[in-house]
Amino acid sequence: MLRLALKSLSYRRGSVGLTLVAIALALVMVVLGGRLSEGVKNGLYSGSRGVDLVVARSAGDVQIVMQALYQIGPGGAGMGPDDQALVAALDDIAWVVPVALGDSHRGLPVVATTPAYLERVADANGQPIAFAAGHWADEWTAVVLGARAAKQLGYALGHSVTLSHGSGTGLERGHEQVLTVSGILAPTGTPLDNRVLVSLEADRLLNADPITGAVAEQGPVTALLVGAKRKVGVFRIQRDLERLTDGRLRAVIPGAALTQLWQLVGVVQAATQVLSGLMLGFAALTLVTLALMNWRQRRRECAVLRAMGSPFGFAVGAHVVEGIIVAAASIALAVVATAVGFEWISAWVLDEYGLLIAPAGGVAEWLVYGAATLLAVAATVLPLLISWRGAIASGLTETQ
Predict the structure, then answer these.
(1) 165 and 214: one domain?
(2) Is 161 helix (H, G, I), strand (E, B) or coil?
(3) On the CB side of 247, how many CA atoms lie within 13 Å of its CA?
(4) Is 257 contained in some domain?
């Protein structure tokens, strides 16, 4: 039976090859799309691990979280010293880490904060942030680089760094003061890998009044990362800030904001999944079409089998094996293409956004592969069912 199926496929290798590629491409679209979607989702959530609330001047929840934790999107108005003191004085708050944004270095975002920032956030696996080399020095000129930032810039400990005011578009104003790299972080799998960290003191000195040179004793910050004493205290903090500031400040739960973002993205994701499903169905129709195009070959095969006394079940079994072979070859090709595509795209996302997309296979992928196998078998057996009746009467009398 296997030998018969292989000979039949070899006789129609051209059309079978096209069918195999069509099914493999459809599988790559379905599986790779789902894997990337789930990976990006997990990567975003891992970037907020360890932070209970993000407090900033009132803006959209998604905007606040994406700006404070991922440095993506436009920043809102800064929080002055009075607002910072008000937040830190709330009873349910365990710790507060300020974050000031607005500078960059060769296109990489600069995050001005305190050493406590590295103690409160975690890497993609929930582990504490560690240094690969050096440490966060006490001097205001100290700079700490993320792992990929150091690799991309080619910097080592002691390298001189000058920052620019702006997002790194090439139109920003450069600061004259020279800073020094004192530490390089180990890889974290979060946006921190692509960041440049400086102290809040450095931020104030670099952004002193350009005319008078005056330096603020405590400058404004973009947001405050907050940890609650108890999880139930998160909602109390939100209510207290709303009441005490008349809505001027907003405390956002990172997970809730990311869920909102994912609901918006989910519409596009659902449309992509539907499109991928249609592509898989189109591949199955292609298989049926190619099989029906080989109508004469199929009829002669059926005629020969019936003339030899082969039962109908044997013919069906041979064609089922044929369909399984086509499906297995398509799945193997799709698995290789998916692995290569995932590796390339995940590396690009890590370089561009600092998000680690972990490989995420599972039951869903096997269900897709199973569905592809059933479609291939059905598409292979269908022409047999059409061709079997009257195969002897017409198939053996035909000339080539």
Answers:
(1) yes
(2) strand
(3) 2
(4) no
Q: In which residue ranges of the chain is pLDDT below 50? A: 170-171, 392-393, 395-396, 398-400
pTM given for the model: 0.70
Domain end among 215, 231, 252:
252
- Residue range 85-115, pLDDT digits in tens: 999 999 899 999 999 998 889 888 999 999 9
Q: What SS3 state is found at 184?
A: strand
Number of structural domains, the chain? 2
Interacting residues of 288 by C-beta distance below 8 A, sequence separation 6+: 379, 382, 383
Domain housing 340: 2-44+265-395
Query: Exposure of 124 by Cβ count < 10 A (0-12 exposed, 13-18 middle, 19+ buried)?
Result: buried
Q: Is residue 22 part of a domain?
A: yes
Q: DSSP per residue over 87-125, as a string?
A: HHT-TTEEEEEEEEEEEEETTEEEEEE-THHHHH-B-TT
Contact call for residues 121 and 51 (beta carbons, < 8 A): yes
Pair (248, 273) in one structural domain: no
The reply to whether 39 falls in a domain is yes
Q: Which of 33, 24, 37 is nearest to 337 (CA)?
A: 24
**Phi (first) and psi of residue 25, to 5 degrees:** -65, -40
245-301 pLDDT, tens digit per residue, is: 888 899 999 989 988 888 877 776 677 777 767 776 776 676 666 666 655 555 666
**Residue 400 placed within a domain:** no
